[in-house]
Structures are given as structure tokens and as C-alpha cells.
Amino acid sequence: MNPFKKLARQTVIYGLSSVVGRLLNYLLVPLYTRYFLPEEYGIVTELYAYVAFLVVILTYGIETAFFRYSQKVPNKRTVYSTALISLLITSTIFVFIIFSSAAPIANWLQYPNHSDYIQYFALIIGLDAVSAISFAKLREKNKASRFALIRLVNIFINIGLNLFFIIYCPYALENGLSSVDFVNSVYSADIGIGYIFIANLIASIVTFLMLFPEMIKSVWIFDKSLWKQMMIYGLPLLIAGLAGMTNETIDRILLKHLLPTTVNASSELGLYGAFYKLSILMILFIQTFRFAAEPFFFAQEKEKNARKIYADVMKYFVIITSVIFLGVSMFYDFIILFLGENYHDERGFMVVSILLAANLFLGIYYNLSIWYKISEKTKYGAYLSIFGAIITLCLNFILIPKIGFVGSAWATLICYFSMMVASYFLGKKHYKIPYPLKRIFFYLGLVCVLYFTSIYFDSNIINSLYILIFISITFYLEKPKKAVISSPKLFD
After folding, report:
1. 3-state secondary structure of 36
2. 413 vs 62, 180, 278, 410, CA distance in Å?
3. Distance between CA atoms of 177 and 184, rounded to whole angstroms?
4. What's the whole-model pTM score?
5. Helical H segments across 101-193, by residue range
């Protein structure tokens, strides 16, 4: 098979499992927001924010180091076994420490009666960290189908158990179904949101067991010298990963600690977490784009017109994300129905609009990042992530006490906008790409005009017209021009 076709096929498979997984998990949000109050959902939002950080710490860049040293070391099995043993040891130590400290941690998080939540997540994080290296092994061996199958099984088990515990069990008890004896043996209404974590834990256990054949076939050799090299290689990746995770999730951790004491912090956190989910279309498109774009960019690197192709991709990316921004923001009144009535807060429209714009800028940043990947100056990726993390932290500390989670949304927007601008100017210096800036600025400006006009002149018919106007103008400007036309182009 042609190597590029093979890469494209695997990209689709990996992307499918990831994007479909995220989409299906997002579909749990209407369930959670209808069955749990904002302060309850706030617990879910906060704990999963901590999980995101801890998974990065507990895998400490060894997954990427495995890919690197699998190409350098003749015996790939030794590389895998060294990484696997390392993760098994560190994950076991982590689980032991967290289990031993579950009560104090729960008290610190202000969940004194729920140390069981801490124990659930200790096991989830430990299992997922060990599983990560086996997933990496499947990718290294080009077993994309098995990779996707295991990921999807994990997702469907998680969703199925959520539906079983949150919907079916209470329904069975209320209506005296024939399965009531079984339900009574596995279900207790007092556990509540704990079933979200139990479902995740069971899914992680099944995933671990499905990956167990990869582990058991290992040679079980720990090469200390190789391990040191992998740790040195992985440390910068750990730092960059933590910086990136700070940009993505630190706001949901800080909210609870920085909001005024007069505010119900858990409820505010639950609302913000739910609003964040409403930018799903933008996030999913960017996620899909990232899976497809990186191999595409590298495949085009040696072409004569590679830089022109990169520039055109950026332009069309801006067009598509602009349509998504307009669609979600202008039909917010329909999209908010995705959430339960307790989450219909008047701040939602502003927060969702800000987060949509933030993710649009993040997508542009991903486009721009090709310069440091192609020129092999990847250290700048770490610098930019750290730069963004500093902005995120500073603005959250300043804004949250004043304007609550709206401040967190603004911090996200400013962070991604700043990273985008910084990456553009660095790229202009190290690997110049002829982006059609006039055309891109025109499209972004048109989006702003239509968005603010829709705020003052708002109806479903008019909003549809605004989107149609944007699409019509872009179609007119982007349609192929005949060669005989010699008049100057306004927006090159």
C-alpha cells in the first residue's frame, strides 16, 4: 500500500475512535444536566480537571519516548517492556499513596464524605496510565483497527453503564420491573454522581484487560540505561504537556478556590463545565482537523508549492470555523436546550460565544504550528505552551474574583489569541508561509459584524440569513476565476 494512503487510512481510524468517542461522551451532558444539580455536576467537572493533569504527570512523556526509541534501539520489545515496567511501578506507587491519603484529599477538596471518589479516580488514572503505553505499542505496530476497537469498547461500556445506573435502575425500582431484585443488589440511590465515576472505572478495567495480551507478551526486561535516556527525552514533553493542560483545564480547578465565599462555587463550576460542552461542534471539528492535518502537512513538505498549500488550508479552515461560530452562537436558543433547565443561566450565551472564539483561535494556532514542526524547532512549541499557561494563570487569578467564570472564558480567549499571534510572528521569522492575511481578516471581520448585528436584530429567520450572507460572500470570493479576467483582486 502507498505509504501516504496507509497513513491517511490510519489517521481516519484513529480520528474516528477519538472524535466519535468525544461526541458520544458529550451526549451524556444532557443526561447529567437533567438528573443532577449544577453543584453536583460541578464535582464531576472539578475532578475530571484534576484527572487531566494527573494523567499527564503519571505518563511523564514516556509514550512519545517509546515511539522515538523504538526507531533507535534494535530490540523494540525491550523499549516497550522498559516503559511498561516503569509505568506499572509508578502507577502502583501512585494508587497506594492516593488510597492511603484519600480522606485528607477529600477534605481538602471539600468533599469530606466522599473519599471513595478519590479512590475511584486513583484506580482510573493508574489503569489509564499503564494502558497508554500498550495503546502506543498498537500504534507503533500499525494496528489501527485494534486500537480503535478497544477505544470504542471503552466508550460504549462507559455510556452503557451511565444509562443503566442513572436512568434504568431508578426506573426499574419505581415501576417494580422484573429485574428489581438484581437492581437492588447493584444500585443505591445514595451513590448519586458516584455512578459516573464507577462507570468510568469499570470501562478502564475492561480496557486494561483487553490490552493485557500486549503486556503479557512483553519480554519483561528493564533496561536501566535505556530508561534514563527515555526519561531525559520525555521530561521536556512532560513540561509542555502540563503547560498545555494548564491552558485547557486550570480554570475549572481555580474557580472553586478564587470565587468569593458568598457564591456557591460548586454550582458555578457546574454551570461553567456545562457551558464549555456547548462549544462541542468547534472542538470536534478542530480535533478531526488535527488528526488529518499533521500527516497531510508533512506529506506536502517536499512539494514545490507546499507553502502555498499550507496558506490555502489556513484560509479554508478560517471559513469553516467561522460558519461553525456563527451557527452555534446565532442558534444558541436551540442549543441551550441541550442542557437541563437548571443550567439555563443568562451568562451562558456570552460564555459560549467567548469559548467558540477562543477555540477558533486555537485552531488557527494549530495551523500555524506547522512552521516549528517542519523546521524541527519543536522547542518553540513548548515555549508557546508555557507562554500561554502564564497568561491563563495570571488572568484567572485577576478575573475570577471579579466576574466569576466569565473571567475564565475571557482568560481562555486571550491565551489562545496571544499564542496565535506569537506563533505567527515566530513562524514569519523561521519558516515564512504566504498566508492570505487580507482575505482572512476580511472573513473574521465579517463574522464580527454579523455576530454583533445578530445580537440587536435577532430572530431565527434573520439569523439564518446572516449565515447565508457569509456563505454566499465566501463562495463568490473563493470560486475559481477565469484566467482572462485581469481586474485586481481586492482580498488577495
Report:
1. coil
2. 31, 49, 16, 5
3. 11
4. 0.80
5. 102-108, 115-140, 144-163, 169-175, 180-186
E strands present in 322-369: none
Q: What is the pLDDT of residues 246-284, one digit of tens each?
A: 888 899 889 988 988 888 888 999 999 999 888 877 887
Q: How many CB atoms lie within 10 A of CB 441?
A: 12
| pLDDT value at residue 484 | 43
Give the span between the Cα atoms of 469 and 471, in whole angstroms.
6
Nearest to 250 by CA among 393, 120, 94: 393
Please name which of 419, 194, 443, 163 lies closest in space to residue 317, comparing C-alpha atoms.
443
Write out the DSSP string of 407-428.
HHHHHHHHHHHHHHHHHHHHHH
Q: Quick one: CA torsion of 268, 274, 276, 278, rounded to 10 degrees?
A: -140
Closest CA to 379 of 414, 435, 311, 426: 426
What are the pLDDT digits (tens) for 414-444?
999 999 999 999 988 888 888 999 999 999 9
Residue 482 DSSP class? P
**Where do the structural domains in the chain lie, given as residue ranges?**
1-261, 278-479
* HSE-up of residue 306 (Cα within 13 Å, Cβ side): 14
What 8-state DSSP symbol labels residue 341? G
Q: Which grid coordinates are listed for 205? A: 478495567
Tens-place pLDDT, residues 61-95: 888 788 778 877 777 788 889 999 999 999 999 99
Indicate the length of the chain as a whole number: 492
**Is the alpha carbon torsion for 474, 475, 481, 486 positive or negative?**
negative
Q: Are 51 and 34 in contact (CB under 8 A)?
A: no
The 10s digit of each residue's pLDDT in 132-148 is 999 888 877 877 788 88
Q: Which of 284, 272, 339 is nearest to 28 (CA)?
A: 339
**In the structure grid, which three cell numbers stand for residue 100, read together?**
492511603
Q: Per the structure block, which three cell numbers stand in for 288?
A: 478531526
Spatial distance between the Cα atoms of 281 and 289, rounded to a whole number of angstroms: 12
- pLDDT bucket at 360, cuts 50 / 70 / 90: very high
